[in-house]
Design goal:
Length: 250
């Protein structure tokens, strides 16, 4: 039995004032007995303060990226150890905005995955195809390649301490989510791929869907057998909407 997980990716949004009010409202709205694990990923500069606001709650803290390097002359970067030091439990790696806007390739994403795990963070490892790739029937090939790049470095065992997020690039921030069947097909492919290497890992790894998840479509998406929750962008900035999405995953 996999515990559902709903992760809010705030991206580059928020302010100290806005975050405080978002977190307070969210904590008021979340069901205390909710079965889903809930995670929020604020921008780096707000991690510590957001962690303080979440201190007496079950909501977890994650960051949106980490450096592949441990420390040193890497201006503008944040190490996994630093993220851990300010209270993070999770780190998103390989988000499509990092891949496509900042040129992060499969090999770098794999190194980030390793860096996160080696400092006690659980990677939320994102994969997904572009519209072009989907339309040319390359979804399976692309997602498999992204996963293989990590597997080549870590082996399947590392996925015992990782989350996978399937986020079709064409569905992110577009209002156009993958249909539950489209998402389920890719989730099942990912699970089968890992199960072929290690049956236990394939069965237990949590695979989130991301891309225009909202209160109106969450329940249907999360009801699919291989969808274990969501990675939520825009809708995680509205406390009531995000709380409804979390309730849909319970
Ligand atoms: P969205 O973003 O929910 O706004 O589509 C999802 C994500 O990028 O993680």
């Amino acid at each position: 039995m996999r515990q559902p997980l709903v992760a809010g990716n705030w991206k580059m949004h928020g302010s100290r004032v806005d975050n405080a009010s978002l977190v307070r409202s969210l904590l008021d709205l979340l069901r205390p007995d909710g079965g889903a694990e809930v995670l929020v990923c604020p921008p780096f500069v707000y991690l510590w303060e957001t962690g303080r606001l979440l201190k007496d709650s079950d909501v977890q803290l994650g960051c949106q990226s980490v450096s592949a390097e441990a420390q040193g002359a890497f201006t503008g970067e944040i190490s996994a150890a630093m993220a851990r030091d300010v209270g993070c439990r999770y780190a998103i790696v390989g988000h499509s905005e990092r891949r496509h806007l900042y040129g992060e390739g499969d090999a770098l994403v794999a190194r980030k995955f390793v860096a996160a795990q080696s400092h006690g963070l659980v990677p939320v490892f994102c994969v997904g195809e572009t519209l072009d790739e989907r339309e040319s029937s390359r979804t399976t090939e692309v997602v498999a390649r992204q996963i293989d790049a990590v597997l080549a470095v870590t082996g399947a065992q590392a996925f015992a301490r990782a989350i996978i997020a399937y986020e079709p690039v064409w569905a992110i921030g577009t209002g156009r989510n993958a249909s539950p069947d489209q998402a389920q097909d890719v989730h099942a492919m990912i699970r089968t791929k890992l199960a072929a290497l290690d049956g236990m890992i394939g069965e237990s790894v949590r695979i989130l869907y991301g891309g225009s998840v909202k209160a109106a479509n969450a329940r249907e998406l999360f009801s699919m057998p291989d969808i274990d929750g969501g990675l939520v962008g825009g809708a995680s900035l509205k406390a009531d909407e995000f709380a409804q999405i979390c309730a849909a995953a319970d």
